[in-house]
């Protein structure tokens, strides 16, 4: 055995001798002595295996329950006569059970190409990294310290942004910290919200958006996506009308590192493919830990979709919410979502739908497989709110083109019990999703920057807009375009051109003709300087400018030209200066869609001609307005 190893090493050494990565490669073999060498697939574990199952020989249920016992990676059912399942095999025990439990007629093959890819991710992780706040070899991905540093920076930055609040909230400790206070980490929430409505003397009921990332430690990209989302919100507040409107009407709660103990291992010892937390408990210590996404107390403990084997990747823990990380998230989330919308007996009343005006959006972001998953996951049955959940899943899909992987969908994967998204929906009423980003745990930066971030960041911003009452807002029509001039020189007769496009179906991706996306547009409404949901200090809402809608098939584009004098009566801010226009519509089933905002700045100067619009204010007050090339007076508005 030793001889064989030596001769393989010799051959590899020869092959790599002229390669610049040689020294890291050599070092990594000895540093990772318990694991497979980094380089081409020359055997060893972990490795990727492909299971090929003939569709004729096996029921789908049988296949999915088999798959759920393993560290499943991808599932391809493109070929009609068989499915290909790719599985990450961590150790000999895994490999034994894979071969012994496979369905009859299934073939189990080692996938050399994919295993080699895993080794390459690992090699890249070993390459020298300049920045200490990113994962070695992945300059696009912040590491634990990088994410925590960014949280601090955003909180600091918010101090100088009017009406923006960014708080870091300590919600508990990780497992290691509960054992020894000098080890482990605090569990932290980054809370972001705007106070613009209150600042203007109004009031509003804020939506709740709750996001967890990093639950599975080896999924490198999700915490980065969550952090970029936080940055987009903070940097857009007061700059971008839509982001400002979202934050003034939403509390965003982000647990960017939901499993920091595990994450530390995943970032520093990538060969372990650490998924779970750091509670010990498996004889093979590498495979210890509890899968936090099987540890939540809704339908916890089912043998389908979780494991009671402490070494399994889906080990559910010794009891529901046994883990301090789970407890921290649960206690905090309960303090955020309204108690009034919960059921007395969530399991007993499992078939009762939550009301359409139930508040709150939740997503747990994982990788990988390019999927959008929604409840239920503990069984392949739709929830009583499936129509609203699926409406929103389709709208998320319109941004990222991921597969719809909810219950009873062709791309439903396998059951998973005790998962976080089932708990947020079942216990709290939040409309819940699990994202599976991208195509790899250790995703390359080109894919992260060019595909994953640009397609998923807008989906989160869209989801935030629905988070007041996602079950109904997701069924309404969407403003897909709201175009205003950035600046306009003020004169009462100046026309303001607005282009507005609204559609009930445009963002409903997936097989066409979904029930909530087939209505016609009944109304399009605009408000100025006051969000449609807000109340002023007398308890009154804004003036609503309702636009006439002709008969239509569900998508309407309107080009409006109104003299500014029409809007002046609705202005709640000084005429000269920035204004916000809010737009929303209703469909013929009466569903109101999300609100979209855009801004315009009215100026005294016509920058194109250098003309100035001046009010001639005489002793008797306002007389007329005339245009002068050089205005001797301050611009004042009649
Ligand atoms: Zn995961």
What does this structure look like?
The protein is of the alpha+beta class and 638 residues long. The chain folds into four domains: 2-125, Alpha-Beta Plaits (2-Layer Sandwich); 134-269 and 329-472, Aminopeptidase (3-Layer(aba) Sandwich), CATH 3.40.630; 478-603, Immunoglobulin-like (Sandwich); 607-638, no CATH class. Helices cover 29% and strands 25% of the residues. The strands form six sheets. The protein has an eight-stranded mixed β-sheet with strand order 7-8-10-9-11-14-12-13, with helices on both faces. The protein is globular. The chain starts with a helix and ends in a 10-residue tail after the last strand. Bound molecules: zinc ion.
Identify the strand order in the major beta sheet.
Answer: 7-8-10-9-11-14-12-13
Distance between the ends: 93 Å
Number of helices: 17
Bound molecules: zinc ion
* Number of DSSP E strands: 25
Tally of distinct domains:
4
Summarize model confidence as the mean pLDDT: 86
Second rung of CATH, namely the architecture of the largest domain: 3-Layer(aba) Sandwich
Strand content: 15-25%
Structural class by secondary-structure content = alpha+beta
* The CATH fourth-level homologous superfamily of the largest domain: Zn peptidases
- Give the % helix: 25-40%
State the CATH topology of the largest domain.
Aminopeptidase
Rg from alpha-carbon coordinates: 28 Å
Main sheet summary: 8 strands, mixed
CATH class (first level) name of the largest domain: Alpha Beta
Unreliable stretches: 1-37, 616-623, 627-634
Shape: globular
